[in-house]
Design goal:
Layout (H helix, E strand, L loop, with lengths): L1 E6 L2 E4 L4 E9 L6 E7 L6 E7 L4 E3 L7 E8 L2 E8 L8 E8 L3 E3 L3 E6 L1
Parallel strand pairs: 2-11
Antiparallel strand pairs: 1-3, 3-8, 4-5, 4-9, 5-6, 7-8, 9-10, 9-11
Length: about 120
């Protein structure tokens, strides 16, 4: 089993920055990819960024240059970070950490609210 716990969300003014963290624990040794998704009210959940265990990254085209994903690996625990810069009100959403382990797994989500 794996568990994902996000933290770091909150309220920030437009133009500000925020860094989200996700602890992925449990049977992490065979996890190859971790990612961040977001879901705004009335919208579908969408990919923000993903990263493989060897550091290859993939970003939503509209977020390239503003968001940076990174990982830190340790025994029985991985951490994945999402640095968000130059935030805009349209970035307001619940942000979810996710990985694939016997199917896609999700964290509980963390709210990010960007005020104008």
């Amino acid at each position: 089993q794996v568990q994902l716990v996000e933290s770091g969300g909150g309220l920030v003014q437009a133009g500000g920055s925020l860094t989200l963290s996700c602890v992925v624990s449990g049977s992490v040794f065979n996890i190859n990819e971790m990612g961040w998704y977001r879901q705004a009210p009335g919208n579908q959940r969408e990919l923000v960024a993903s990263i493989t265990s060897d550091g290859n990254t993939n970003y939503a085209e509209s977020l390239k240059g503003r968001f940076i994903i990174s990982i830190s690996k340790a025994h029985a625990k991985n951490m994945v970070f999402l640095q968000m810069n130059s935030l805009k009100p349209e970035d307001t959403a619940v942000y979810y950490c996710s990985t694939i382990w016997n199917g896609r797994k999700w964290g509980q989500g963390t709210q990010v609210t960007v005020s104008s």
